[in-house]
Amino acid sequence: MAKTYYDPSDLRKFGKITEWNEELGNKFFDYYGKVFEEGALTAREKSLIALAVAHTEQCPYCIDAYTKDGLQRGVTKEEMMEAIHVGAAIKSGATLVHGVQMMNKVNKLDG
Amino acid sequence: MTKIKTKSLQKRDSDLANSNRQLEILSSGVFENGELPTFKDKIAETKQFPLRPNKLEILQINLGYMCNQVCEHCHVDAGPDRKEIMTRETMQQCLEVIKKTGAHTLDLTGGAPEMNPEFRWFVEEASKAGIKDFIVRSNLTIIRANKKYYDLPDFFKKHNVHVVSSMPHWTRGKTDKQRGEGVFDMSIKALQELNERGYGMPDSGLRLDLVYNPSGAFLPGDQMAMEKDFKKALMEDFGIQFHNLFAITNLPISRFLDYLIASENYEDYMYALVEAYNPMAVKNVMCTNTISISWDGWLYDCDFNQMLNLKVASKVKHVSEYNEELLQDRNIIISQHCYGCTAGAGSSCQGVVA
Ligand code: SF4
Ligand code: SF4
Is B78 in the pocket of ligand 1 (CB under 6 A)? Predict the structure, then answer.
């Protein structure tokens, strides 16, 4: 058995998930492929969104994949870092905005 | 001034300066243990083995490995320390071929072809042969490297040369990382000078194309999308125009192979190439319509095979005994580096092929 939870070479095997459920696996990959096609957003913009979300989800496979994808599309490291800050800002904002809930509760119980 | 970053593999006495060592690496590891299929097995799946030439369209002549730059990933292992240069005698033999060939394109490359002392004489003579498309692969910085090259844009214009130039990125940082400090600014200046002569302008017959190849261990993105991004950025930032962008995949040979191994990217890169394999690209790979001639007159299926010292599998092996009919009746020599030509939309000196 592997000694770590994550193995970089597992990313290459992602497609194998269809082997244990072909129908759902294929539906997922069709959907996935379609989402990243050029549309109202460019494929480049989608790649940067994916990179930011990969970080907020903290998925090492997606981080690997979308860093490489960005490089392939000519995305610069400055653009990548800014995208991650957008993700981080939403993450921390989402944490902090719940502070209002805490404040409401304190005011109700101990106001 | 540009700052030279490194030396050629040859000068460094690297193991990889030996092409046999490179071929050994390309045939061992993941390809030997069956993890990945060899290129031969892969193209055999669609009955495309052995690979054979189609109609000859391009004569590519390498005027020497000397270059004013030492780009990190150069597949020629070129640099100022390389002394291999085509002589006038070999050029004369090439001219005989140019007069007779059925190819419509002549493609001069190097190194920096302009550094060959006989370069101008050769261009003048070759242009008399009335070839339809006469390409010089110019690295741009050479135009600004020394006073004696300042008039190159005029010289190119005079002979209606089609200029094809490398530009790794539209930002300074990424360009200089790959090609050396100061390269970006000099390239921009050179492009502006070419534009001033009419090169690259929308309706101009003076063709100026750019070549993009990735700055690291990843494949090039979509050629059309990259062209759009390059055009927008170069126009907005510098008012520069050009015709087409060719997106070229880095082949795992020479200094790029050295880089892949040193950075521990070799296996992943080979996986990426094999995963991106496109059987549709095979029938148009460069070797099917090109003959490559080295500085010392030997004949090769392509520039990459030249660097791996894989001479054509034909009775005719040297420009002095050139015979197009005999030469076209040959099998092309392949190895795992060929996966670089068939990834995604494919890759050649003219960009995508599929
Ligand atoms: S300019 Fe071209 S030939 Fe010269 S070192 Fe760079 S890649 Fe090699
Ligand atoms: S590397 Fe050369 S021989 Fe191999 S497929 Fe590409 S062009 Fe053909």
Answer: yes
